[in-house]
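Sequence design from tokenized structure. All designs in this work follow the same two-part layout: the structure record, then the generated sequence. An example of the structure record is given first.
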């Protein structure tokens, strides 16, 4: 049966200064740990420590820019970009050179 998700769950975020994460699908909101779909709002100057997520993570940048660093290098994308990070890949995220998101 289809499931209606009425509102997201606010998730605590790593990094400084704090960002806002509202999760629609994932461990915090629906109890499903293999995928996270969330709306993130990151202030200017925000950065997070490196992490290795236990779920597939995909990002669509709506405004500003985002840099994704991994052992293979860095990828910067702007509001028109998308990125996918698969389970177990260690990454670090921070804003790029675009306008604040």
């Amino acid at each position: 049966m289809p499931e209606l998700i009425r509102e997201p769950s606010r998730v605590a975020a790593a990094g400084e200064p704090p960002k806002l994460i509202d999760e629609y699908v994932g461990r915090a909101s629906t109890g499903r740990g293999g995928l996270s779909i969330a709306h993130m709002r990151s202030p200017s100057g925000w950065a997070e420590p490196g992490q290795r997520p236990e779920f597939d993570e995909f990002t669509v940048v709506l405004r500003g820019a985002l840099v994704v660093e991994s052992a293979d290098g860095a990828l910067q994308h702007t509001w028109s970009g998308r990125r996918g990070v698969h389970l177990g890949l260690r990454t670090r995220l921070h804003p790029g050179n675009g306008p604040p998101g």
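The two ends are 36 Å apart (CA to CA). We note this feature because it recurs in several other targets discussed in the main text.
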